[in-house]
Design goal:
The complex is a heterodimer of chains A (196) and B (241). Chain A has 196 residues and is mostly helical. Chain A has helices at 4-15, 25-48, 54-93, 99-102, 107-130, 178-186; strands at 146-151, 156-159, 165-168, 173-177, 190-192. Classes of the chains: A mainly alpha (196), B mainly alpha (241).
């Protein structure tokens, strides 16, 4: 059936609401091929038929065109929604994507990601008459200055705002200023220890 | 520092500050007195209040509102100076943490405000840019940098989608304006509190065609569809809550 593949693409995307499935190039190409075949068939009919019996072919022409439009719409939705997810990842992971996530992106999407990072960085730099403000920080209303965190991976040394250097080791507990560990928590290196 | 010493310090501090509640308006006023602000109307607590209101409005409305970048920039500068001042205090001063936490709270409001605006800009890029183009220079809703951002964001997306469109058959290989326009839902209901008394606010009745008049009195609260109060929100006579 026509447009089935395009719908499958969307279903695949829909099944993973929290993660980004790998870019399905084969399927995208298959949908594009189907579109080209539909188009060629229509052109063929238009060229071969004389104007007086065109009415006979009208239903099939219209049907193919509707299938074309639907394919296009599904593909656009697929690409657009992937962009939205990639945008979300820029805010979660920061400027550098973890390699396992990056491998799920197409080349064009990596490009988009880099350019998006660039315009976002430019905007953040311009806030406050050129002082720059990192919008990726202070994501939640602060309850306290320090957070108790557990380190989940051997991250190595991080530099604090006051110039102190701390070495983060796996399974160690730390009490760190919020601004220093917010990004690391989102990246999954630190875990906030909730104490009641 | 041993416990006893710390306690003495706290007591001294509390005695020094007869009013022991440490609110940000006081904190900021202290700062202002040092700097001797020349404009009495726009002291830091007032600006903070303006930003807080703008932030709430922005958060609760679906469409983008006129920008308040002057206040945000001013407040941000203030934060930076204060952080600078704090860093000059001796590192065992008990006030550091308290001040720092208050500053973090203001920081949160500012970043959250700007983030919400960015999200709206990214979502409704086309519509916002279209409307911006129709507005006069003095009446722009986006700040200069936000406008730049919106434009480059739109360009970026069009470029990306065009990569696929290029491979499609010629008769469907373009996107019409209406196909890609995303509009905010302006009919959503909002909680409002009126700052001024005024009548003559007409609300379209959902069931019939008749309009109903609502009289706003000062500090009265209503639940109304957003589009009927959008103008009042923009001219600041109504606060979304």
């Amino acid at each position: 059936m026509f447009t089935e593949k395009a719908v499958d693409l969307l279903k695949e995307l829909d099944r993973c609401p929290d993660t980004l499935p790998p870019y399905h190039e084969k399927m995208v190409r298959a949908v594009l091929d189907e579109m080209n075949i539909l188009f060629e068939k229509n052109v063929e009919v238009l060229n071969s038929s004389v104007s007086d019996n065109l009415g006979e072919f009208m239903p099939v022409l219209k049907f193919r065109h509707a299938a074309l439009e639907r394919n296009k719409r599904c593909l656009m939705a697929y690409f657009w929604n992937r962009l939205l997810k990639i945008r979300q990842m820029r805010w979660e992971f920061g400027r550098i994507l973890p390699p396992d996530v990056k491998s799920n992106l197409s080349e064009a999407e990596v490009n988009w990601f880099n350019n998006y990072s660039k315009i976002l960085a430019n905007y953040m730099k311009s806030i406050g008459q050129g002082c720059g403000l990192n919008l990726l920080q202070n994501m939640d209303p602060p309850k306290s200055l320090y957070l108790e965190v557990r380190c989940l991976a051997d991250h190595g040394e991080i530099k604090m705002e006051n110039g102190e250097v701390i070495c983060l080791q796996k399974n160690h507990l730390y009490l760190l200023p919020r601004s220093a560990c917010e990004m690391l928590i989102r990246q999954g290196i630190l875990e906030q220890v909730v104490s009641f | 520092m041993c416990l006893e010493e710390a306690l003495v310090r706290v007591k001294k501090y509390l005695m020094m500050e007869t009013d022991s509640s440490i609110d940000i308006s006081r904190l900021l006023r202290d700062e202002d007195e040092e700097n001797i602000s020349d404009d009495e109307e726009f002291t830091a607590p007032i600006v903070l209040n303006l930003i807080e209101n703008a932030w709430l409005n922005e958060k609760l409305s679906a469409e983008i509102l006129p920008h308040k970048s002057i206040y945000v920039d001013a407040m941000y500068q203030q934060i930076l100076t204060m952080e600078d001042n704090i860093s000059k205090l001796p590192s065992d001063d008990i006030r550091i943490d308290i001040y720092q936490l208050e500053l973090d709270r203001i920081r949160y409001i500012i970043t959250s405000y700007l983030r919400i605006r960015l999200e709206k800009i990214e979502r409704f890029t086309k519509q916002i840019l279209q409307q911006e183009a129709q507005r006069s220079v003095d009446d722009q809703y986006l700040s200069f940098h936000e406008l730049q951002y919106a434009k480059s964001f739109q360009e970026l997306n069009e470029k990306h989608l065009n990569l696929v469109l290029k491979k499609m058959p010629a008769n469907v290989a373009s996107l019409s304006h209406s196909q890609t326009l995303i509009r905010p839902n302006l009919e959503h209901f909002v909680f409002i509190r009126s700052r001024v008394s005024q009548d003559g606010l007409f609300i379209p009745d959902i069931a019939g065609n008749e309009e109903r008049e609502v009289k706003l009195t000062e500090n009265s609260q209503f639940i109304l569809p957003y589009n009927s109060v959008s103008e009042l929100v923009k001219n600041n006579s109504v606060q979304l809550i």
